[in-house]
Structure formats: C-alpha cells, structure tokens
Amino acid sequence: MGFAKVYLAYLKNNLFMRLLLLFSLITIITIISFSFYMYHSMSQAAINRELDIQKKAMMNVNNYLGQKYDAAQSILFGLYRDSSLAAGVSFMLQHPFQEYVQHSLEQNNLGGNSTWNDGLEYFKNHLEDDEDIRNIMLYSVEQQDLYVLSHNRPMRLISANAAHSYIPEVMALDSKSVTLPNIWVREAADQWDNHLYAVRTPINDKQTLKNIGQQLVYFSSDSIWKVLSDEQKDLKGAILVLSSEGGVLFDSSDQYYGKPYPYMDQVNAMYEHSEMNNNNYVTKLTQNKGDFIVVGLMPKEELSASSWRIGSTIFSISAVCIAIAILLPSLVVLNVAKRTNLIIRFTRKVKQGDLTARIQDTREDELGQISRSFNEMIDELNQYIERVYKADIKQKHTELTALQARVNPHFLYNTLEVIRMRAISQGAHDVGEMIYSLSALFRSFVQQKKVYTLKDELEACRLYLELFQIRYKDKFTYTIEWDRKLAPLRIMKMSLQPIIENYIVHGLRNESNDNKLQIRVHQMDEFLHVQVTDNGNGITPERLKEIEQRLQMEESEDESFGLRSIHQRLKLLYGSKYGIELRSTPGHGTTVDVWLPADGGKEDYDV
Where is each Histidine kinase domain found (predicted)? Predict the structure, then answer.
C-alpha cells in the first residue's frame, strides 16, 4: 500500500491520527536526539575518566621512578659527605683491589680512621636497605674492574679489561642516567632478569674532581607495581616506562620487555598530552631528571566496550521511554477519538431526525461537558418543537374557527354595504357607522396576512370598540395610547381582541354612564407590555383565584377564545416568561397585563 493510499485511508480525515503521528514523530526525534547527546557526553566522560585514572597511575609511576633516581644519587651524596669514606672508595677505584686491601690493613694497624676501609660495606648496606635494588655495581676507570654487589651473595670483582670485554667502551659512552642494563654488564655480572632498569652515576674524586669510575644501580621493574596497586583494579590499557633510546624499562602489559619499543618515533613526536593514533589513546609524561618517558596506552577497543555498555543502557532506556511516551498518549488519544466519534454518530442520528438519541458520558472533562450540552440541547429542542408545534396548532385552530364565520365573505360584505347605504339614505347615520365598523372588523378577522403586526391588532380592537361605543352611546368611552414606532412589531393574531371582548361581556356596567376602557402599549427592555384597564364590575378574589388557576390548565378544543387561550398560545409560541396577568378590585375594575416579546418573536416565527 502506497503512502497516498495510507494517507487517504487513515490520515486525511482523521485529526486524532494526524496528531498522534505528529506527537510520535516529535517524541521519537526528541528522545533519540537526547539519547545521542547523552551517549556522546557519557562516552566522552567515560573516556576521560579512564584516561584520568591512567594518567594518575602514570604520575605515580613517574614520581616513583624519580624517587628511585634520587635514591641512587643520594648513595653518592652520602659518600661525599664522609671525607674518610670517600677517600677510601677513591683509593679502591684507583688501585688494584689487593693493594686496596693491603693499604686498608696498614691503616688499621697504624690506628687510622676505621671508616676509610668501609667503602664496600657502605654500598652493601644501601643494597640491603632498599629491597627494590637488585645490584649495585662500581666500575673503576683506571683499573677496568667491576665490583658487583648482590643480595645474599658475596661481593664479586670482575675484570673488564678492554682486551676481553666491551665494558670499558660502554662505560666510556656518554649515556643517560636511567637506561636498560647493558648486555655486556649483564653478562659480566651474570644478571639476566629482563625486569630491570639501571641508574648510572659517575663517581668523581672528592679532592681532584677527576672521574674515577661509575656507579650502576639495578632496580627491579616489578617494584613499580606497588604504586599501581590502588588503581590496578580500575586501570585499563598499558603503562610503559621508556628510556630515551626506546628501551622498555617497565611494561604493565608484559608485552615489550627485552626488546626496543617499536613506536618510539611517534612517542618522541608527541607533545605531553593525550593523543590518539590508529588504535590507541596515547598519553606521554617526560621526566627530565632521569631522562625517561612514561607512556600510557589506552586501546580504543577497551574504551569502545565501555561506551557500548553505556550506549546499550541509554538506548534501552530510550526505547522504553519511547514506548511509554507513545503508548500512553495513544491510549488517551484513542479514547478521546472514540468518545468524539460517539458524539459525531449521535449528531448524525439527530440530523436524520432521531431526537431521542442521548449520549451516555458522565465524565467531567470537556467531551463530557459537550455530551451533556448536546443532550440538554436536544431536550430543549424537543420542548421547543413541541411548544411551537402546539402553538401553531392552536393558532390554526383559532384561524379555522374564524374562517368558519366566512360563509360567503363577499356576499356578506356586499350585503352589509347595501344595508349601510340604505341606513344612511334614510338618515340613520349611526346605524351606517356600526355596519361599516362591523364589516371592517369581519374583514380583519378573516383576512389572511403573512405578517400580522401590533398595528393590525390595535386596529381590530378599535373597530370592535367603535361598534360598542355606538351601541352604548354616552355610556362607554375608550382610549388607546401607544408609540407609533411600535406599529410594525410582529405579534400573535387575536392576542388583545379577546380581552376587549371579555370586558364587554363581563365587565361593562349597563346602568352606569361612565364606563371606560384604557389600552396602553409601551416597551420595557425585552418585553412589549400591553395594559388593558377598565372601571367595570371587577372580579371577586375567589373568582380571580379560580381564573388564575384555569390559566395554567390546557385549553380544550371546543372552548371559546378567552383569556386562557391567549395565555396558553403566548407561552407556547414565545416561552414561559410571556403571557397575561390579572389584577382586579370588585366594584372598581380590572387590569389585564399582557407580556409580549419586544423583538416580535422573530426566532419563533422563523422556526
């Protein structure tokens, strides 16, 4: 399935899937980027940590070798501080050993200084005091003899005559202080241990400062492990101690002992900080005092193993985080999508005419509130439809009843017009006026208009009142007070005329000459207030209570158009806050307040 098909099938019209995909991509990219950053940072930190451990160990080795170099030098410094001892050693190195022995005996017999002949014992004591020393050798330049002192062995005197040995040439060379033991010296001293390094120091006559020999101190390279004991557990890679010629004085990997270091040229070309060649991180420390070099080698494979463990841990955690970061929001989004689709399905049901559909969602979040609002909207819509439907039925019933009076409207209008003209021709002008008002009133009742206004209803009331004013001449008067600006306001047909009729039937006092009816119309905020006041018979409190109760009851189909009809139709058409109210005082009159919508009930009429 191509990308286009997948997009059309799952993403194009699915907002939640697009949001989930976007969130997943952002989450994955963010976590992977952060993981790589963490991996790089922690790997570099791990490398630096390993290099720091190695460098600390190298510093310890460097300091240790410096101390051993100082220890070898201090042997001669101690010798020079004792003039008698220095004179004895100078004599020994400048004369044959037998002559030295004989001369020593003579010095003792003569009562000379006893320290004069303790030279070899002095060196022997230093050998015994330092367990890291394997041999101390004294070479005589003039006699070409080599004195060899070893642990648990007597002193050996070895002739190093140039005719039989290369030792004189070796000793004559300008060699550095810390080196590998020379092979000719090894052979002469019978010392073949590869784990040794030599500290060579010239011996000068204290009086003449003439060079009379060499001191060679062989130290054990294995003793260097003592300073590495604390770091040995965490130490990775190898530490080497190299002479300036490339000889391996110490090798923690035990790989290069007994042969020259093959990468000495690269080491000499390095500065004294960590660098990386093809396979190793290399750290170099130079000791000028002994002219040796401490080199640290850290194979990239070992560091890669540590980095791989760190990377595996980080990426495992990242994978878990990605899974959780996607799974949990996915569950939430899918749940929201499910609830949203439920709302969509119910709205479609309502669209298809099923007004009984209700969404069952009791949660208090936004979708729960939308669901409850949807249910409330459908409830109100049902009530509204029922109210408008009933109001329309009642209005049609009212109009139908009015239409029933239209037996033959044109015949009736023509007949009334003939009667009116005949009454006027005979001088009965008041009869003519009554017939005209009656004809106009009937016309307004039966006329079908799309828009019925306040002006139309007040005109119907005026015609009706004109009829009765002619009938009760000098006994009845009326007034209509209203703002002409309210004339085009739409109102319900026959919303006021039945109230006027109700007064004529029940409130007019035939025996009185001051009957009066007053109609006032004015706007109060969202209401159009019509007040009909008369000074008629009034209504007793018991009868008024009964009428008020009947106003709240359903109107029967065969009931005439009275107050209850108006009240019920107003409430059904416009709402519960509209309708009529009654106030009456027996013997003083009645006031009827009619409350209509000030906006003409446009929304209801539109529906």
Answer: 496-600
